[in-house]
Amino acid sequence: MNKTSLYQAHLDAGAKMVDFGGWQMPINYGSQLEEHHAVRQHCGLFDVSHMTIIDVAGEDATDFLYKLLAGDIKKTDVNQALYSTMLNEDGGVIDDLIVYKQSDERYRIISNAATRQKDLAWILQQADDFKVTIEEQSELSILALQGPHSEQLLNSVLSFDFSDLKKFRATQSDDLFIGRTGYTGEDGFELLVPNNQANGLWDKLVQAGAKPCGLGARDTLRLEAGMHLYGQDMDESISPVNCGLAWSVRKNNYDFIGGNVIKTQRQQGADQRLVGLVLSGRGVLRHGQNLFNNDREIGVITSGGFSPTTESAIALARIPASLKTDTLQVEIRKKQLPCRVVKPTFVRNGQSLIEE
Amino acid sequence: MSYVPDNLSYTASHEWLEKIETGRYRVGITEFAQDQLGDIVFVELPEMDESYAQEDECGVVESVKTASDLYAPIGGTIVEINDALEDTPELINDSPYDDGWIFVIEVDDESDLDNLLSAEDYRNSIEDEE
Prior knowledge:
The complex is a heterodimer of chains A (356) and B (130).
Chain A: E1 2-3, H1 7-12, E2 16-20, E3 23-28, H2 32-41, E4 44-47, E5 52-57, H3 61-68, E6 81-87, E7 93-103, E8 106-111, H4 116-126, E9 133-136, E10 140-146, H5 150-158, E11 170-173, E12 176-179, E13 188-194, H6 195-207, E14 211-212, H7 215-224, H8 259-268, E15 272-279, E16 290-293, E17 296-307, E18 312-320, E19 327-332, E20 335-342, E21 347-348, E22 351-352
Parallel strand pairs in A: 1-3, 4-14
Antiparallel strand pairs in A: 2-3, 4-10, 5-8, 5-9, 6-7, 7-8, 10-13, 11-12, 12-13, 15-18, 15-20, 16-17, 16-19, 17-18, 19-20, 21-22
Helix pairs in contact in A: 2-7
Chain B: E1 9-10, E2 15-21, E3 24-29, H1 31-37, E4 40-44, E5 51-52, E6 57-63, E7 67-71, E8 76-81, H2 84-87, H3 91-94, E9 103-107, H4 119-127
Antiparallel strand pairs in B: 1-2, 2-3, 3-9, 4-6, 5-8, 6-7, 8-9
Protein backbone atom coordinates (compact mmCIF):
# COMPACT_ATOMS: atom_id res chain seq x y z
CA MET A 1 0.00 0.00 0.00
CA ASN A 2 1.36 3.43 -0.96
CA LYS A 3 1.59 6.24 1.56
CA THR A 4 1.96 9.94 0.83
CA SER A 5 4.60 12.08 2.54
CA LEU A 6 1.83 13.40 4.80
CA TYR A 7 0.73 9.98 6.08
CA GLN A 8 1.98 10.55 9.64
CA ALA A 9 0.52 14.08 9.71
CA HIS A 10 -2.90 12.59 8.88
CA LEU A 11 -2.65 10.04 11.68
CA ASP A 12 -1.52 12.74 14.12
CA ALA A 13 -4.56 14.82 13.12
CA GLY A 14 -6.87 11.89 13.92
CA ALA A 15 -7.65 10.86 10.35
CA LYS A 16 -9.61 7.74 9.54
CA MET A 17 -7.59 6.14 6.74
CA VAL A 18 -8.94 4.12 3.83
CA ASP A 19 -7.53 2.34 0.81
CA PHE A 20 -8.09 4.50 -2.26
CA GLY A 21 -6.64 3.29 -5.55
CA GLY A 22 -3.81 1.52 -3.75
CA TRP A 23 -3.09 4.46 -1.43
CA GLN A 24 -3.68 4.91 2.28
CA MET A 25 -5.63 8.18 2.31
CA PRO A 26 -7.64 10.11 4.91
CA ILE A 27 -11.41 9.74 4.41
CA ASN A 28 -12.13 12.23 7.20
CA TYR A 29 -10.62 13.66 10.38
CA GLY A 30 -13.78 13.23 12.45
CA SER A 31 -16.70 14.86 10.69
CA GLN A 32 -16.99 14.88 6.92
CA LEU A 33 -19.85 17.39 7.17
CA GLU A 34 -17.75 19.90 9.12
CA GLU A 35 -14.96 19.53 6.57
CA HIS A 36 -17.42 20.07 3.73
CA HIS A 37 -18.80 23.26 5.30
CA ALA A 38 -15.29 24.53 6.05
CA VAL A 39 -14.50 24.48 2.32
CA ARG A 40 -17.78 26.19 1.37
CA GLN A 41 -17.45 28.88 4.05
CA HIS A 42 -13.75 29.29 4.89
CA CYS A 43 -10.85 27.17 3.76
CA GLY A 44 -10.03 23.48 3.68
CA LEU A 45 -6.81 21.61 2.93
CA PHE A 46 -6.59 18.27 1.14
CA ASP A 47 -3.66 15.93 0.56
CA VAL A 48 -4.12 14.71 -3.01
CA SER A 49 -0.58 13.44 -3.49
CA HIS A 50 -1.98 10.09 -4.61
CA MET A 51 -2.80 11.68 -7.95
CA THR A 52 -0.48 11.03 -10.87
CA ILE A 53 1.88 13.71 -12.17
CA ILE A 54 3.31 13.13 -15.63
CA ASP A 55 5.69 15.58 -17.30
CA VAL A 56 5.72 15.70 -21.09
CA ALA A 57 8.68 17.52 -22.67
CA GLY A 58 10.38 17.82 -26.02
CA GLU A 59 10.10 19.61 -29.34
CA ASP A 60 6.98 17.61 -30.32
CA ALA A 61 5.27 18.04 -26.94
CA THR A 62 2.46 20.28 -28.24
CA ASP A 63 1.78 18.12 -31.31
CA PHE A 64 1.81 15.00 -29.17
CA LEU A 65 -0.76 16.37 -26.72
CA TYR A 66 -2.88 17.62 -29.63
CA LYS A 67 -3.08 13.99 -30.76
CA LEU A 68 -3.39 12.44 -27.28
CA LEU A 69 -6.06 14.73 -25.81
CA ALA A 70 -9.57 15.62 -26.95
CA GLY A 71 -9.22 19.18 -25.67
CA ASP A 72 -7.46 21.95 -27.58
CA ILE A 73 -3.93 22.21 -26.23
CA LYS A 74 -3.06 24.63 -29.06
CA LYS A 75 -5.42 27.20 -27.58
CA THR A 76 -3.83 26.86 -24.16
CA ASP A 77 -1.43 29.64 -23.15
CA VAL A 78 1.81 29.27 -21.25
CA ASN A 79 0.96 29.02 -17.52
CA GLN A 80 -2.62 28.08 -18.35
CA ALA A 81 -4.35 24.83 -17.37
CA LEU A 82 -6.64 22.75 -19.58
CA TYR A 83 -9.20 20.19 -18.42
CA SER A 84 -9.38 17.39 -20.99
CA THR A 85 -10.28 13.78 -21.52
CA MET A 86 -7.88 11.22 -22.98
CA LEU A 87 -9.78 8.81 -25.23
CA ASN A 88 -9.24 5.36 -26.69
CA GLU A 89 -9.72 4.62 -30.41
CA ASP A 90 -13.44 4.01 -29.80
CA GLY A 91 -13.92 7.41 -28.18
CA GLY A 92 -14.20 5.94 -24.65
CA VAL A 93 -12.66 7.87 -21.79
CA ILE A 94 -9.34 6.40 -20.60
CA ASP A 95 -9.05 9.18 -18.03
CA ASP A 96 -9.80 12.83 -17.37
CA LEU A 97 -6.98 15.13 -16.41
CA ILE A 98 -5.62 18.64 -16.03
CA VAL A 99 -2.64 19.63 -18.15
CA TYR A 100 -0.56 22.70 -17.33
CA LYS A 101 1.38 24.33 -20.13
CA GLN A 102 4.77 25.48 -18.88
CA SER A 103 6.20 26.26 -22.34
CA ASP A 104 5.66 25.12 -25.93
CA GLU A 105 7.93 22.18 -25.16
CA ARG A 106 7.01 21.44 -21.57
CA TYR A 107 3.70 20.30 -20.06
CA ARG A 108 2.61 18.79 -16.76
CA ILE A 109 -0.34 16.38 -16.63
CA ILE A 110 -2.20 15.62 -13.40
CA SER A 111 -4.43 12.57 -13.70
CA ASN A 112 -6.19 10.14 -11.40
CA ALA A 113 -4.54 7.79 -8.90
CA ALA A 114 -6.37 4.56 -9.70
CA THR A 115 -5.57 4.90 -13.42
CA ARG A 116 -1.82 5.49 -12.99
CA GLN A 117 -0.54 2.31 -14.63
CA LYS A 118 -2.86 2.30 -17.62
CA ASP A 119 -2.42 6.05 -18.20
CA LEU A 120 1.36 5.78 -18.23
CA ALA A 121 1.30 2.71 -20.47
CA TRP A 122 -1.10 4.38 -22.90
CA ILE A 123 0.80 7.67 -23.03
CA LEU A 124 4.14 5.89 -23.57
CA GLN A 125 2.64 3.73 -26.30
CA GLN A 126 1.21 6.75 -28.16
CA ALA A 127 4.46 8.72 -27.79
CA ASP A 128 6.47 6.40 -30.04
CA ASP A 129 6.30 8.59 -33.13
CA PHE A 130 6.95 11.87 -31.35
CA LYS A 131 10.11 13.54 -30.09
CA VAL A 132 8.99 13.72 -26.47
CA THR A 133 10.08 12.44 -23.09
CA ILE A 134 7.45 11.14 -20.69
CA GLU A 135 8.40 11.21 -17.05
CA GLU A 136 6.34 10.47 -13.98
CA GLN A 137 7.01 12.87 -11.10
CA SER A 138 6.87 10.92 -7.87
CA GLU A 139 9.03 13.42 -5.96
CA LEU A 140 6.20 15.92 -5.69
CA SER A 141 3.28 16.09 -3.26
CA ILE A 142 0.01 17.84 -4.09
CA LEU A 143 -1.89 19.94 -1.55
CA ALA A 144 -5.27 21.38 -2.50
CA LEU A 145 -6.24 24.54 -0.62
CA GLN A 146 -9.92 25.20 -1.31
CA GLY A 147 -12.53 27.69 -0.17
CA PRO A 148 -13.39 31.40 -0.29
CA HIS A 149 -10.57 32.34 2.13
CA SER A 150 -7.89 30.40 0.24
CA GLU A 151 -6.28 33.41 -1.43
CA GLN A 152 -6.03 35.41 1.76
CA LEU A 153 -4.61 32.45 3.63
CA LEU A 154 -2.07 31.56 0.95
CA ASN A 155 -0.96 35.19 0.68
CA SER A 156 -0.18 35.26 4.38
CA VAL A 157 1.62 31.92 4.46
CA LEU A 158 3.77 32.48 1.37
CA SER A 159 4.13 36.27 1.74
CA PHE A 160 3.02 36.74 -1.83
CA ASP A 161 0.06 38.37 -3.55
CA PHE A 162 -1.96 35.80 -5.49
CA SER A 163 -4.79 38.19 -6.44
CA ASP A 164 -3.43 38.46 -10.00
CA LEU A 165 -3.36 34.69 -10.53
CA LYS A 166 -6.52 33.97 -12.49
CA LYS A 167 -8.60 30.82 -12.49
CA PHE A 168 -6.97 27.94 -14.37
CA ARG A 169 -3.63 29.75 -14.42
CA ALA A 170 -0.42 28.60 -12.76
CA THR A 171 2.75 30.15 -11.43
CA GLN A 172 6.08 28.89 -10.14
CA SER A 173 7.72 30.25 -7.00
CA ASP A 174 11.03 28.63 -6.04
CA ASP A 175 10.23 24.94 -5.55
CA LEU A 176 6.47 25.53 -5.50
CA PHE A 177 4.18 25.04 -8.49
CA ILE A 178 0.83 26.72 -7.85
CA GLY A 179 -2.28 26.34 -10.00
CA ARG A 180 -5.57 28.14 -9.33
CA THR A 181 -7.67 25.02 -9.84
CA GLY A 182 -9.61 22.57 -7.75
CA TYR A 183 -12.37 20.02 -7.47
CA THR A 184 -14.84 21.68 -5.13
CA GLY A 185 -16.64 24.50 -6.97
CA GLU A 186 -14.89 27.06 -4.77
CA ASP A 187 -11.94 29.34 -5.35
CA GLY A 188 -8.70 27.56 -4.51
CA PHE A 189 -5.21 26.44 -5.35
CA GLU A 190 -3.39 23.21 -6.01
CA LEU A 191 0.15 23.33 -4.69
CA LEU A 192 2.83 21.01 -6.02
CA VAL A 193 5.69 20.85 -3.55
CA PRO A 194 8.78 18.62 -3.24
CA ASN A 195 7.97 15.70 -0.92
CA ASN A 196 10.53 16.80 1.66
CA GLN A 197 8.78 20.20 2.01
CA ALA A 198 5.22 18.89 2.04
CA ASN A 199 4.90 18.55 5.81
CA GLY A 200 6.29 22.04 6.44
CA LEU A 201 3.82 23.61 4.03
CA TRP A 202 0.92 21.52 5.34
CA ASP A 203 1.66 22.57 8.94
CA LYS A 204 1.90 26.26 8.02
CA LEU A 205 -1.41 26.20 6.16
CA VAL A 206 -3.15 24.39 9.00
CA GLN A 207 -1.68 26.80 11.58
CA ALA A 208 -2.96 29.69 9.45
CA GLY A 209 -6.50 28.29 9.69
CA ALA A 210 -6.99 25.79 6.85
CA LYS A 211 -9.01 22.79 8.04
CA PRO A 212 -7.64 19.35 7.07
CA CYS A 213 -10.25 17.65 4.87
CA GLY A 214 -10.48 14.05 3.69
CA LEU A 215 -11.56 12.34 0.51
CA GLY A 216 -15.12 12.03 1.86
CA ALA A 217 -15.65 15.79 1.81
CA ARG A 218 -13.81 15.99 -1.50
CA ASP A 219 -16.44 13.69 -3.00
CA THR A 220 -19.50 15.56 -1.67
CA LEU A 221 -17.96 18.88 -2.71
CA ARG A 222 -17.23 17.77 -6.26
CA LEU A 223 -20.68 16.19 -6.54
CA GLU A 224 -22.36 19.46 -5.51
CA ALA A 225 -20.16 21.25 -8.03
CA GLY A 226 -21.29 18.77 -10.72
CA MET A 227 -17.75 17.64 -11.42
CA HIS A 228 -17.21 14.17 -12.86
CA LEU A 229 -15.55 11.31 -11.02
CA TYR A 230 -13.68 8.93 -13.29
CA GLY A 231 -14.89 5.33 -12.98
CA GLN A 232 -18.39 6.44 -11.93
CA ASP A 233 -19.56 9.25 -14.21
CA MET A 234 -17.49 8.05 -17.14
CA ASP A 235 -15.18 5.22 -18.13
CA GLU A 236 -13.73 3.54 -21.20
CA SER A 237 -17.17 2.49 -22.44
CA ILE A 238 -18.58 6.06 -22.55
CA SER A 239 -17.67 8.88 -24.87
CA PRO A 240 -17.42 12.42 -23.47
CA VAL A 241 -20.30 13.43 -25.76
CA ASN A 242 -22.62 11.01 -23.93
CA CYS A 243 -21.71 11.93 -20.36
CA GLY A 244 -21.85 15.69 -20.18
CA LEU A 245 -18.25 16.39 -21.17
CA ALA A 246 -18.83 17.49 -24.78
CA TRP A 247 -17.84 21.02 -23.75
CA SER A 248 -14.28 19.81 -23.12
CA VAL A 249 -13.85 18.32 -26.62
CA ARG A 250 -12.57 20.54 -29.41
CA LYS A 251 -14.80 21.14 -32.43
CA ASN A 252 -12.46 22.57 -35.03
CA ASN A 253 -10.26 19.52 -35.57
CA TYR A 254 -10.90 15.85 -34.88
CA ASP A 255 -7.35 14.66 -35.41
CA PHE A 256 -7.05 13.21 -31.91
CA ILE A 257 -7.27 9.60 -30.75
CA GLY A 258 -10.96 8.66 -30.83
CA GLY A 259 -11.74 11.80 -32.80
CA ASN A 260 -13.43 10.04 -35.73
CA VAL A 261 -15.95 8.41 -33.42
CA ILE A 262 -16.64 11.70 -31.64
CA LYS A 263 -17.11 13.51 -34.94
CA THR A 264 -19.73 10.96 -36.05
CA GLN A 265 -21.49 11.09 -32.68
CA ARG A 266 -21.64 14.87 -32.88
CA GLN A 267 -23.07 14.75 -36.40
CA GLN A 268 -25.68 12.17 -35.44
CA GLY A 269 -26.42 13.66 -32.04
CA ALA A 270 -25.59 12.23 -28.63
CA ASP A 271 -27.43 9.10 -27.39
CA GLN A 272 -27.29 10.03 -23.74
CA ARG A 273 -26.98 13.12 -21.62
CA LEU A 274 -25.98 13.94 -18.08
CA VAL A 275 -28.60 15.48 -15.81
CA GLY A 276 -28.81 16.49 -12.19
CA LEU A 277 -31.39 14.94 -9.87
CA VAL A 278 -32.82 16.17 -6.59
CA LEU A 279 -34.80 13.67 -4.53
CA SER A 280 -38.20 15.15 -3.68
CA GLY A 281 -38.73 13.29 -0.40
CA ARG A 282 -36.41 11.89 2.24
CA GLY A 283 -33.61 9.47 1.51
CA VAL A 284 -30.20 9.40 -0.15
CA LEU A 285 -29.42 8.97 -3.86
CA ARG A 286 -26.51 6.62 -4.57
CA HIS A 287 -24.32 5.49 -7.45
CA GLY A 288 -25.97 2.60 -9.33
CA GLN A 289 -29.62 3.26 -8.45
CA ASN A 290 -31.91 2.75 -11.44
CA LEU A 291 -34.16 5.43 -12.91
CA PHE A 292 -37.64 5.03 -14.33
CA ASN A 293 -39.94 7.13 -16.48
CA ASN A 294 -43.54 5.91 -16.56
CA ASP A 295 -42.47 2.48 -15.29
CA ARG A 296 -39.85 2.10 -18.01
CA GLU A 297 -36.23 1.80 -16.87
CA ILE A 298 -34.38 4.58 -18.67
CA GLY A 299 -31.11 5.27 -16.88
CA VAL A 300 -28.88 5.07 -13.88
CA ILE A 301 -27.40 7.32 -11.21
CA THR A 302 -23.67 7.62 -11.83
CA SER A 303 -22.87 9.61 -8.66
CA GLY A 304 -25.19 10.34 -5.78
CA GLY A 305 -25.13 11.42 -2.19
CA PHE A 306 -26.31 13.76 0.49
CA SER A 307 -25.57 17.40 -0.30
CA PRO A 308 -24.59 19.14 2.95
CA THR A 309 -24.89 22.64 1.45
CA THR A 310 -28.44 22.22 0.13
CA GLU A 311 -29.41 19.58 2.73
CA SER A 312 -30.95 17.42 0.04
CA ALA A 313 -30.16 14.20 -1.78
CA ILE A 314 -28.58 14.97 -5.16
CA ALA A 315 -27.17 12.93 -8.02
CA LEU A 316 -25.63 12.94 -11.45
CA ALA A 317 -27.40 10.58 -13.85
CA ARG A 318 -27.22 9.42 -17.45
CA ILE A 319 -30.53 9.32 -19.34
CA PRO A 320 -31.49 9.11 -23.04
CA ALA A 321 -30.68 12.40 -24.76
CA SER A 322 -34.14 12.42 -26.36
CA LEU A 323 -36.00 12.21 -23.04
CA LYS A 324 -37.29 15.62 -21.99
CA THR A 325 -38.87 15.50 -18.56
CA ASP A 326 -38.94 17.47 -15.32
CA THR A 327 -39.34 14.42 -13.09
CA LEU A 328 -38.10 10.83 -12.91
CA GLN A 329 -38.53 8.02 -10.42
CA VAL A 330 -35.57 6.47 -8.66
CA GLU A 331 -35.72 2.97 -7.25
CA ILE A 332 -34.42 2.82 -3.68
CA ARG A 333 -34.80 -0.49 -1.86
CA LYS A 334 -37.58 -1.62 -4.23
CA LYS A 335 -39.61 1.59 -3.81
CA GLN A 336 -39.93 4.19 -6.55
CA LEU A 337 -39.45 7.75 -5.32
CA PRO A 338 -39.85 10.95 -7.35
CA CYS A 339 -36.84 13.09 -8.31
CA ARG A 340 -36.69 16.48 -9.97
CA VAL A 341 -34.49 16.76 -13.05
CA VAL A 342 -32.20 19.81 -12.77
CA LYS A 343 -29.01 21.19 -14.30
CA PRO A 344 -26.05 19.06 -13.20
CA THR A 345 -24.43 21.84 -11.17
CA PHE A 346 -25.89 22.14 -7.70
CA VAL A 347 -23.57 24.54 -5.85
CA ARG A 348 -21.05 27.20 -6.91
CA ASN A 349 -19.09 29.54 -4.66
CA GLY A 350 -21.06 28.60 -1.58
CA GLN A 351 -24.49 29.16 -3.15
CA SER A 352 -27.13 26.62 -4.11
CA LEU A 353 -28.03 26.74 -7.80
CA ILE A 354 -30.96 24.34 -7.50
CA GLU A 355 -34.02 26.10 -8.88
CA GLU A 356 -37.13 25.86 -6.73
CA MET B 1 -11.70 1.75 21.83
CA SER B 2 -15.39 2.44 21.44
CA TYR B 3 -17.64 2.71 24.47
CA VAL B 4 -19.68 -0.47 25.03
CA PRO B 5 -21.96 -0.13 28.08
CA ASP B 6 -22.00 -3.22 30.32
CA ASN B 7 -25.77 -3.18 30.92
CA LEU B 8 -26.85 -3.64 27.27
CA SER B 9 -27.07 -6.63 24.94
CA TYR B 10 -25.66 -6.57 21.41
CA THR B 11 -25.83 -8.14 17.95
CA ALA B 12 -22.97 -8.91 15.59
CA SER B 13 -24.60 -6.41 13.21
CA HIS B 14 -23.92 -3.63 15.77
CA GLU B 15 -27.37 -3.04 17.27
CA TRP B 16 -27.72 -2.60 21.02
CA LEU B 17 -30.76 -3.62 23.06
CA GLU B 18 -31.92 -2.34 26.45
CA LYS B 19 -34.74 -3.74 28.56
CA ILE B 20 -37.07 -0.88 29.52
CA GLU B 21 -40.01 -2.82 30.97
CA THR B 22 -41.29 -6.37 30.91
CA GLY B 23 -41.20 -7.62 27.32
CA ARG B 24 -40.22 -4.23 25.85
CA TYR B 25 -36.75 -3.41 24.56
CA ARG B 26 -35.24 -0.21 23.19
CA VAL B 27 -32.89 -0.61 20.21
CA GLY B 28 -30.20 1.53 18.62
CA ILE B 29 -26.80 1.15 16.97
CA THR B 30 -23.51 1.13 18.85
CA GLU B 31 -20.96 3.88 19.18
CA PHE B 32 -18.62 1.73 17.11
CA ALA B 33 -21.22 1.42 14.33
CA GLN B 34 -21.94 5.15 14.15
CA ASP B 35 -18.22 5.88 14.12
CA GLN B 36 -17.69 3.46 11.22
CA LEU B 37 -20.58 5.00 9.28
CA GLY B 38 -19.52 8.62 9.73
CA ASP B 39 -21.98 11.53 9.69
CA ILE B 40 -25.49 10.08 9.58
CA VAL B 41 -27.85 11.97 7.26
CA PHE B 42 -30.95 9.77 6.95
CA VAL B 43 -32.75 7.09 8.93
CA GLU B 44 -35.53 4.94 7.53
CA LEU B 45 -37.42 3.92 10.66
CA PRO B 46 -39.40 0.68 10.96
CA GLU B 47 -43.15 1.14 10.80
CA MET B 48 -45.26 1.28 13.95
CA ASP B 49 -47.14 -1.97 14.74
CA GLU B 50 -45.11 -3.86 12.14
CA SER B 51 -43.86 -7.32 13.17
CA TYR B 52 -40.41 -8.64 12.43
CA ALA B 53 -38.64 -11.94 12.97
CA GLN B 54 -35.24 -11.96 14.62
CA GLU B 55 -32.56 -10.63 12.21
CA ASP B 56 -35.16 -9.27 9.74
CA GLU B 57 -34.24 -6.03 7.99
CA CYS B 58 -36.36 -3.38 9.65
CA GLY B 59 -34.82 -0.07 8.62
CA VAL B 60 -31.82 1.70 7.17
CA VAL B 61 -29.23 4.11 8.52
CA GLU B 62 -27.53 6.19 5.83
CA SER B 63 -24.39 8.24 6.33
CA VAL B 64 -22.53 10.55 3.98
CA LYS B 65 -20.54 7.45 3.05
CA THR B 66 -22.92 4.53 2.83
CA ALA B 67 -26.26 2.89 3.61
CA SER B 68 -26.40 0.29 6.34
CA ASP B 69 -29.35 -2.00 7.04
CA LEU B 70 -30.86 -2.15 10.47
CA TYR B 71 -31.86 -5.60 11.77
CA ALA B 72 -34.39 -6.56 14.41
CA PRO B 73 -32.25 -7.95 17.26
CA ILE B 74 -35.23 -10.00 18.48
CA GLY B 75 -38.53 -10.99 16.91
CA GLY B 76 -41.51 -8.85 17.88
CA THR B 77 -43.71 -5.84 17.18
CA ILE B 78 -42.63 -2.21 16.90
CA VAL B 79 -44.39 -0.23 19.63
CA GLU B 80 -42.42 3.03 19.54
CA ILE B 81 -40.16 4.82 17.05
CA ASN B 82 -37.84 7.78 17.58
CA ASP B 83 -39.47 10.40 15.31
CA ALA B 84 -36.77 12.94 16.21
CA LEU B 85 -34.40 11.03 13.90
CA GLU B 86 -36.41 12.13 10.85
CA ASP B 87 -35.19 15.71 11.20
CA THR B 88 -32.08 15.16 13.30
CA PRO B 89 -30.51 11.84 12.28
CA GLU B 90 -27.21 13.11 13.70
CA LEU B 91 -28.57 12.26 17.17
CA ILE B 92 -27.22 8.78 16.45
CA ASN B 93 -23.71 10.21 16.06
CA ASP B 94 -23.99 12.49 19.06
CA SER B 95 -25.73 10.11 21.46
CA PRO B 96 -25.87 6.54 20.12
CA TYR B 97 -27.00 4.95 23.41
CA ASP B 98 -29.41 7.64 24.56
CA ASP B 99 -31.07 10.34 22.39
CA GLY B 100 -30.10 8.35 19.28
CA TRP B 101 -32.25 5.30 20.14
CA ILE B 102 -34.19 4.09 17.08
CA PHE B 103 -37.19 1.98 18.12
CA VAL B 104 -38.85 -0.01 20.90
CA ILE B 105 -39.84 -3.60 20.14
CA GLU B 106 -42.19 -5.86 22.10
CA VAL B 107 -40.72 -9.33 22.11
CA ASP B 108 -42.62 -12.38 20.82
CA ASP B 109 -40.42 -15.04 22.29
CA GLU B 110 -37.99 -14.31 25.12
CA SER B 111 -35.71 -17.12 23.97
CA ASP B 112 -34.53 -14.84 21.12
CA LEU B 113 -32.57 -13.00 23.81
CA ASP B 114 -30.32 -16.03 24.22
CA ASN B 115 -28.83 -15.34 20.81
CA LEU B 116 -27.56 -11.86 21.73
CA LEU B 117 -24.02 -10.93 22.67
CA SER B 118 -22.95 -9.67 26.07
CA ALA B 119 -20.95 -6.43 26.29
CA GLU B 120 -17.78 -8.48 26.66
CA ASP B 121 -18.58 -10.66 23.63
CA TYR B 122 -19.36 -7.58 21.56
CA ARG B 123 -16.14 -5.85 22.63
CA ASN B 124 -14.21 -8.91 21.48
CA SER B 125 -16.07 -9.01 18.18
CA ILE B 126 -15.15 -5.42 17.26
CA GLU B 127 -11.62 -5.57 18.62
CA ASP B 128 -10.21 -6.82 15.34
CA GLU B 129 -11.95 -4.11 13.37
CA GLU B 130 -10.66 -1.23 15.49
